[in-house]
Amino acid sequence: MLLTLLLQVAAELSLGKLGAAIGAGLAAIGAGIGIGKIGGSAMEAIARQPEASNDIRTNMIIIAALVEGVALFAVVVCFLAL
């Protein structure tokens, strides 16, 4: 089903545009998974050591911002490929 849909889209568009769209989607999904793992790990760390919650939260926000920045660059590169 999905392969048929992709082949129909590929017939209408060029393969470069299809690749750029898939790449942008994968970058967004990867960033979502990464930030989710960061948040989950930070919550576990805070549950184990509540006294270090401020340091853990600060590091979590910095790392999440870096992941989001890399994802933004990936999406921009994919859109430039269009």
Automatic annotation (TrEMBL):
Gene3D superfamilies (alphabetical): F1F0 ATP synthase subunit C (1.20.20.10)
Assigned keywords, A-Z: ATP synthesis, Cell membrane, CF(0), Hydrogen ion transport, Ion transport, Lipid-binding, Membrane, Transmembrane, Transmembrane helix, Transport
Entry's localization field: Cell membrane; Membrane
Occurrences of domain V-ATPase proteolipid subunit C-like (ranges): 18-80
Highest taxon, organism lineage: Bacteria
Keyword flag Nucleus: no
Coiled-coil segments: none
InterPro entries: ATP_synth_csu_bac/chlpt, ATP_synth_F0_csu, ATP_synth_F0_csu_DDCD_BS, ATP_synth_F0_csu_sf, ATPase_proteolipid_c-like_dom, F/V-ATP_Csub_sf
Principal cellular location given in the protein's record: membrane
Membrane topology label: Multi-pass membrane protein
Pfam families, alphabetized: ATP-synt_C
Site (Reversibly protonated during proton transport): E68
Residues annotated as transmembrane: 21-40, 61-81
Keyword Transmembrane helix among record annotations: yes
Record PANTHER family: ATP SYNTHASE LIPID-BINDING PROTEIN, MITOCHONDRIAL, ATPASE PROTEIN 9
Purpose: Key component of the F(0) channel; it plays a direct role in translocation across the membrane. A homomeric c-ring of between 10-14 subunits forms the central stalk rotor element with the F(1) delta and epsilon subunits.
Family: Belongs to the ATPase C chain family.
Protein's name in the database: ATP synthase subunit c
High-level lineage: Bacteria, Pseudomonadati, Bacteroidota, Bacteroidia, Bacteroidales
Gene that encodes the chain: atpE
